[in-house]
Amino acid sequence: MLKAPACSIWFVTGSQHLYGAKALAQVAANTAAVVDGLNASGALPLPLVAKPVMTDAEGIRALCRAADADPACAGLVLWMHTFSPAKMWIGGLSRLSKPFLHLHTQFHRDLPWASIDMDFMNLHQAAHGDREAGHLHTRLGLERTVVVGHWQDARVQAELGGWMRAAHGWAALQGARFVRFADNMRNVAVTDGDKVEAEAVFGFSVLAHGVGELAAEVAAQEDAAIDHLCAEYDQRYAVAPALRRGGDRHHLLRGQARIELGLRAFLERGGFSGFTDNFEDLTGLEQLPGLATQRLMADGYGFGAEGDWKTCALLRAMKVMGAGLPGGTSFMEDYTYHLDPQRPLVLDAHMLEVCPSIAAGRPSLEAHPLGIGGKADPARLVFDAAPGAALNASLVDLGGRFRLIVNRVDTVPPPAPLPRLPVARAVWAPLPDFATACAAWIHAGGAHHTAYSAAVDISMLRAFSSMARIELVEIGPGTELERLRQELRWSAAAWRR
Ligand code: MN
Q: What is the 3-state secondary structure (H, E, C) of the chain?
């Protein structure tokens, strides 16, 4: 399993010295109670760490510098328990590079109507202090997420948890390295893009290596390790009889096991978080990585086919965001349509590389001809995606800037068995409806490659796009095509650099 970075989120409460030491001690005690309560809620994917109450500009500058310097700090939660004059926050926040969430909450849920006095009102005045803070955040043009409500409310905790997941995915991209074996599929536009700009915007790098280097690593794998891995396949999947030990096509399974071991070794040694490949250049490999890629995705690696490094990086970030949640996340491709006017459906798949984390049942392991590439029949896992709510996300390069496009979909069981289609697939109905969703996607310039997820929700991708300061185009319930087309025209101006 590729580990996500070990991170925490800093919880920072703002106040000032106006109210005296006793009030500040109470603010600190309340902060500790909020942080302990949130950590105990079970709704947060990362630990919250309480920081000292901020009361002056120098302390805030030092805090923000420390947050930026600490790779384990994935972001900050800010809360103005009392009034905290916001000019004190300019020096720190205007230079802060970590994401932050503004939690607009209050220690007490209910007002003590019979006993409330001026001291109580002065102590619990987030209604007042958070507006001062929000004004400054807007004045400085700071991207952030705002969550409103009592901190013990399950909805508030879920929103905070979702943002923390986005921050964790963002942290996983900072300094991440992705390896690109061979180049882009020849003449394909959408999988290409500006890797220099991507490194500046998202913090990851894409490094090219020749397929020959991978082939050498694959060739160096030993038979004993391949035996061991094939035995694991037997346990985990419904392996076709011909692929099992003693079967006449067992060598094809061993070929994928050898590729998996070689790829894994290459990725681990290079400190890579994901990879791309291209069926047009498999020099020295006997098959296109199929099963190997599926299993590496299931272990948390990013992947993009045909040189698609943008989807690879997005998939890695979404793997981290969705970790531990029900439903999986996979590389995906919009492939073919069922145009029944009663319920049009999209069949998504790829030639081989769909992650078994989204499978409805136990995948079957089969080997079939690929039809392109001219190599041996690759072994691959075949399954249907689990039905339910999901989304497709596509990161595209519009030339000078990036756009994230997300379509919410309802994944359904295939209406009939597909006995002659030997690939993993997902069948879904896009929202709000097929014609609107497809037209909106095409107008927005969305790719045929996506990161598909039943674990990551739209709120996480909203927060992620905000952290990256890139445009997000949402297609889902309530989308009206002509209105969306107008938004695309306006955003072309708004996001121009
Ligand atoms: Mn493809």
A: CCCCCCCEEEEEEECCHHHCHHHHHHHHHHHHHHHHHHHHCCCCCCCEEECCCECCHHHHHHHHHHHHHCCCEEEEEEEECCCCCHHHHHHHHCCCCCCEEEEECCCCCCCCCCCCCHHHHHHCCHHHHHHHHHHHHHHCCCCCEEEECCCCCHHHHHHHHHHHHHHHHHHHHCCCEEEEECCCCCCCCCCCCCHHHHHHHHCCEEEEECHHHHHHHHHCCCHHHHHHHHHHHHHHCEECHHHCCCCCCHHHHHHHHHHHHHHHHHHHHHCCCEEECCCCCCCCCCCCCCHHHHHHHHCCCEEEHHHCHHHHHHHHHHHHHCCCCCCCEEEEEEEEEECCCCCCEEEEECCCCCCHHHECCCCEEEECCCCCCCCCCCEEEECEECCEEEEEEEEEECCCCEEEEEEEEEEECCCCCCCCCCCCEEEEEECCCHHHHHHHHHHHCCCCEEEEECCCCHHHHHHHHHHHCCEEEEECCCCCHHHHHHHHHHHHHHCCC
